[in-house]
Design goal:
Elements lengths: L11 E3 L7 E6 L5 E7 L1 H16 L6 H4 L5 H15 L3 H15 L9 H11 L3 H20 L26 H14 L4 H10 L3 H4 L7 E2 L4 E4 L8 E4 L2 H13 L16 H10 L8 H12 L4 H8 L4 H4 L8 H8 L5
Antiparallel strand pairs: 1-2, 2-3, 4-5, 5-6
Helix pairs in contact: 3-4, 3-6, 5-6, 7-11, 8-10, 8-12
Amino acid sequence: MRNDESKTIRGVWERVPSSNVWWIRFRDADGKLRREKVGRKADAIDLLNKRRNERRVGVKMPDSLRNAGVRLNLLADDIETYSKAHHRDQKHVLSRLKKIREDFGERVADGITPQEIDAWLTKNTKKPGTSNRYRALFSLIFREALRNGKVKGNPARLVQQKREENGVIRWLTDAEDVALRTVLEEHFPKKIPELDIALGTGMRLSEQYGLTWGTVDLVHKEIRLSKTKNYSSRTIPMNSSVLAAFTELRGRVPRAKKSEAVFKQLPRIWWEDAIQKSGIVDFRWHDCRHTFCSRLAMKGVNLKAIQVLAGHKTIAMTARYAHLDDAALRAAVDLIASK
């Protein structure tokens, strides 16, 4: 092995560890930053030295290399950095990005067509929602590259978005509520406040289990959320059940600091066990949020109020619960009844 192969050389890197495929980064005679895929590390070092010498004497890059275009892998690198700064759910974004890299990573970005993206989505995704998430990521890759002058267009914009069906809304019935609480009282009594808070606030799992004591105001009876799925803050008032639940939890840790988490772990093992013991079928933790919205709708609360309380980005998301309160519709048709 050559001596310089064991050293870290600036401008030489292995994109995928242990792949033995090395890249170089350098500036050409025009000062433009360029990257090239080489192969072995020793070859990469030799080529980097060659490119640097060419720059010193003012040698222009060959047209074939100058016009080769940027590969999607390089654009994906930019999105990884972008995701760390803008996405709360980085895990899913990076997972999708990895799958896109597998089939498009070595492709020149400007050579990728809308038809290819559409065909890839059809082959690799089954649900409309999943397809739309991948389409959005493709679009983000090209949008950022376009903004930075690395590509000429965004082919993902010409790929039609799939229509997503909202499906059946699942909420906890009164009988199921009783059955679930009976099981919790017997097996998991300390977890009852967590259920009361979920059903009484409609918070998303990430919102509820991301709470710190500094966001819970027992004096003014409200919860202040600064980090939500939609990147917008909102305040949720506490009803008597929620206030009692938080008061009980606070009593367990009277000296807890404002920065300390209210909940120490996500509802996983105990929740699945309780659902199974109670005989409730097809009910997820997220359905507690649906239950909150459904109960408000069935009590005649207007959709705008439900939207604000639930933190829905659009009223269309809240409109899914409109059919649960038909009192207004019945009153409307009664207005034109024959006398």
